[in-house]
Write a sequence for this structure.
């Protein structure tokens, strides 16, 4: 009896052509061995027509998959069985147009985003490396570029006068354009005047919660280019969400953030660098006793949370973005970010943050030492002119006011019907989204913007 199946060993009692899917899966992963003539318990049961199989199997692997595998005839106690050794392929392999992948001890059929990520990886690319076909240099914010070079010069990782060059030359030197001169996705995320024009969910959402996840007290949404996003988030946290306890060293008054700022900044920058910008916004939930930071994006292949917590190589989800953040002095190389975060909190006498892979992303929980009072920031009342800018007419202001006076929570459909309109998408883009951005409305389910039962609450009286 042989050992059991594993991530690179598969047993099949008889040969079937559908097992070419398993060969395909091994080739697309890290390779492996398939044994024909062995049952699931690892017992050799033998094969008939071995000579024919020894001819058919190699030919079918070549003809249907375009790869070569070693096919060996083995014997155990007068029972013949076949060993197929599959080597990892450097190019994507499909079987009848379908891509299979060996993960753990199972075979998966790759579809959607998983297939997209797999194909990019096999081609040595990341999503941020792809060209944005309709973007031009007119979409680039020169002030954001200047901000980057100022930071890079301070960090002594680039010369500050490079920004004086022509913009195409600058971006070519930063490896942010393709060989045919197209701006990469990374270039637009980092430096575009309006990144949301190209990628609608380039947002960092901060929410202050009370007793539970459904008790959202107030929130902020940080938009714009990601090269300046981290600094904006930190400033908002310091001004509205976190505490700066006061103490004295001699006669000097010291105000220091309740958490180690460098470590918190590192975590925020990492969430931006490793975020999947085709998915949900980055979210930071602030509670009395903890902060929870979540960004969409999976761990690198063969990584676990334990790998992340130990010494590990740097494998950024977005390599171009990571390179720019490194040049700006925002992060360190060599995969030291997690270690820096944990060390910073421990040195401040705080509990080490907890890292989890969950809900298709990475979640980091920071425990707070102090329990602040929950007091919403003072928000100036919304004046009729501000509402008129969004709704367009006084009649719609009155209709919306009456709607929320009779209903505590309303859906997009409720607003659609109240305004006597027919296009739900138009209502969301023209009215709901601007009202959310202005802080007039708030989501009932802020952590799941596309929740099927999403409702809106009136935050500021109209």
């Amino acid at each position: 009896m042989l050992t059991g199946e594993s991530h690179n060993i598969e047993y099949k009692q008889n040969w079937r052509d559908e097992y070419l899917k398993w060969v395909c899966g091994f080739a697309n992963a890290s390779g492996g061995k398939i044994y024909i003539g062995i049952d699931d318990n690892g017992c050799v049961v033998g094969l008939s027509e071995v000579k024919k199989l020894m001819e058919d199997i190699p030919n079918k692997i070549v003809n249907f998959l375009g790869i070569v595998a070693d096919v060996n005839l083995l014997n155990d106690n007068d029972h013949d069985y076949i060993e197929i050794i599959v080597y990892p392929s450097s190019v994507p392999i499909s079987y009848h147009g379908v891509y299979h992948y060996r993960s753990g001890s199972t075979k998966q059929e790759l579809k959607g985003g998983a297939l997209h990520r797999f194909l990019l990886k096999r081609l040595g690319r990341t999503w941020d490396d792809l060209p944005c076909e309709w973007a031009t240099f007119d979409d680039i914010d020169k002030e954001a570029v200047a901000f980057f070079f100022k930071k890079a010069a301070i960090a002594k990782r680039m010369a500050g006068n490079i920004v004086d060059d022509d913009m195409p030359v600058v971006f070519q030197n930063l490896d942010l354009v393709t060989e045919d001169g197209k701006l990469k996705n990374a270039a637009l995320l980092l430096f575009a005047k309006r990144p949301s024009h190209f990628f609608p969910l380039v947002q960092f959402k901060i929410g202050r919660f009370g007793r539970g996840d459904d008790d959202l007290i107030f929130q902020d949404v940080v938009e714009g280019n990601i090269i300046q996003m981290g600094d904006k988030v930190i400033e908002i946290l310091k001004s509205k969400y976190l505490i700066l306890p006061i103490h004295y060293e001699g006669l000097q008054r010291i105000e220091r953030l309740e958490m180690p700022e460098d470590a918190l900044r590192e975590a925020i920058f990492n969430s931006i660098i490793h975020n999947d910008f085709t998915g949900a916004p980055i979210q930071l939930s602030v509670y009395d006793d903890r902060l929870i930071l979540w960004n969409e994006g999976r761990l690198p292949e063969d990584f676990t949370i334990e790998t992340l917590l130990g010494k590990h190589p740097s494998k950024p989800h977005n390599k171009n973005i990571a390179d720019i953040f490194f040049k700006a002095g925002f992060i360190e190389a060599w995969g030291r970010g997690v270690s820096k975060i944990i060390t910073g909190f421990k040195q401040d006498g705080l509990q080490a943050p907890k890292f989890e892979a969950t809900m298709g992303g990475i979640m980091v929980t920071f425990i707070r030492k102090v329990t602040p009072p929950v007091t919403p920031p003072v928000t100036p009342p919304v004046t009729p002119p501000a509402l008129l800018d969004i709704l367009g007419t006084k009649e719609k202001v009155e209709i919306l006011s009456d709607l929320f006076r009779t209903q505590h929570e309303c859906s997009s459909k409720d607003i659609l019907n109240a305004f006597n309109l027919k296009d739900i998408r138009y209502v969301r883009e023209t009215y709901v989204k601007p009202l959310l951005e202005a802080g007039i409305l708030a989501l009932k389910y802020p952590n799941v913007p596309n929740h099927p039962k999403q409702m809106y609450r009136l935050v500021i009286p109209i």
Remarks:
- The first strand starts at residue 9 and ends at 12.
- The domain at 9-124 is CATH 3.30.950.30 (Methyltransferase, Cobalt-precorrin-4 Transmethylase; Domain 2).
- The CA atoms of residues 440 and 460 lie 5 Å apart.
- The chain has three domains: 9-124, 126-378, 384-458.
